[in-house]
Amino acid sequence: MKIVALAGSIVGSKTKTAMLKTAEMLKQKYPEHEVTLLDLAEYTVEFSDGRNYFEYEGDTKYITETIMTADAIIIGTPTFQASIPATLKNIFDLLPVNAFRDKVVSSIVTAGSAKHYLMVEQQLKPILAYMKAHIVPIYVFIEEKDFLRKEIVNDDILFRLERLVEDTVLTVEAFEAIRMRKDEEYDF
Fold it and tell me: Is the pTM of this model over 0.90?
């Protein structure tokens, strides 16, 4: 199974910290799976101009192709102005409308306060649904108070990240089993 952990911002440290911890948990619990951390701060990504994702070059091509070949994507995003950052929206714009068909997508959100928890429900989940993702219904919301010196210090958040990792992998396995059972119905 190919799992992409996507840190969807080029600024700040909290989302990257959460995604590094998530990738570490994935590698520890599921060493048999291929885990790729894509931190957008480490790449130069072109703005979407309507081309097919495979027509781009360099970092843009690498990021879009890595996402397109994944079985699961865990998206980490900060909350900026009660919405997702433009860098993450640009990634969605670079991909085709059905980019997440047959893929499981889960979310980790960082924010300065609890007032932004609905951003996932009102901004992120509708985009993922439109792009045909199998969305893991629970998400992990992490506030500024849960971090100290670029570390997550709230044990409840760490537990919830572990659960999100497990739920993401189990959801992929469940959908694979459903697809295999459905494929067996056909004679060819």
Answer: yes
